[in-house]
């Protein structure tokens, strides 16, 4: 999906100013110079109780003006204002969820598996095995990546 323009997203909280609160990148043309579409790019933001920072993160990604962005937020079940902020921007997110997980690595791998753009498509199963091994109580060295 194309990135929104500044006027299309929620107004920033007061007294925020500067990038990414009231500035945006120059608009990128809808097509590359050769007339072909821009490649899809997937960005995954893992989050857990990041209410103080998540809105700035979301805005800085969305206001990059990239015409073929897949943006996902995987939240680990936050209990702060983060989920409310994510919901305000949900119309510009390709996917988001807030539910308990086992950490940043798990969220990043999950997002990678859900993504279809550059940097996505399935993630690394070996990395997931390490994360799952830690969750199941294995020693840190038992499931090392080669």
Task: Please describe what this structure looks like.
This protein is α/β, with parallel strands linked by helices. The chain has helices spanning 54-62, 82-88, 104-114, 125-135; strands at 41-47, 69-75, 95-98. The protein has four helices and three strands, in the order βαβαβαα. It has a three-stranded parallel beta sheet with strand order 1-2-3, sandwiched between helices. β1 (41-47), α1 (54-62) and β2 form a beta-alpha-beta unit. The protein is flat.
The number of distinct β-strands equals 3
Stretches where pLDDT falls below 50 for ≥5 residues? 121-128, 138-146
Strand order of the largest sheet: 1-2-3
Q: Would you tell me the overall average pLDDT? A: 84
Our measurement of the CA-to-CA distance between the termini, rounded to an integer number of angstroms, reads 36 Å
**Domain module tally:** 1
Portion in helices: 25-40%
The share of residues in extended strands comes to: 5-15%
How many helical elements? 4
Estimate the global geometry from the Cα principal axes: flat
Biggest sheet statistics: 3 strands, parallel
User: What is the H-and-E element order?
Assistant: EHEHEHH
Indicate the radius of gyration in whole angstroms.
17 Å
> What structural category do the secondary elements indicate?
alpha/beta
The gist of it:
This protein is α/β, with parallel strands linked by helices.
Features:
alpha/beta; disordered C terminus; 146 residues; 3-stranded parallel beta sheet
SSE layout:
Elements: E1 41-47, H1 54-62, E2 69-75, H2 82-88, E3 95-98, H3 104-114, H4 125-135
Parallel strand pairs: 1-2, 2-3
């Amino acid at each position: 999906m194309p990135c929104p323009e500044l006027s299309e997203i929620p107004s920033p909280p007061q007294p925020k100013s500067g990038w990414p609160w009231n500035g945006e990148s120059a608009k990128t043309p809808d097509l590359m110079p050769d007339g072909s579409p821009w490649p899809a790019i997937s960005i995954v933001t893992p989050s857990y109780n990041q209410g103080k920072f998540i809105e700035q993160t979301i805005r800085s990604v969305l206001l990059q003006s990239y015409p073929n962005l897949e943006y996902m937020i995987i939240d680990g079940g936050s209990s702060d204002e983060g989920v409310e902020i994510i919901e305000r921007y949900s119309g510009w997110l390709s996917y988001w969820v807030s539910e308990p997980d086992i950490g940043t690595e798990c969220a990043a791998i999950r997002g990678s598996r859900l993504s279809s753009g550059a940097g996505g498509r399935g993630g690394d199963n070996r990395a997931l095995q390490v994360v799952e091994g830690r969750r199941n109580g294995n020693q840190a060295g038992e499931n090392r990546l080669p």
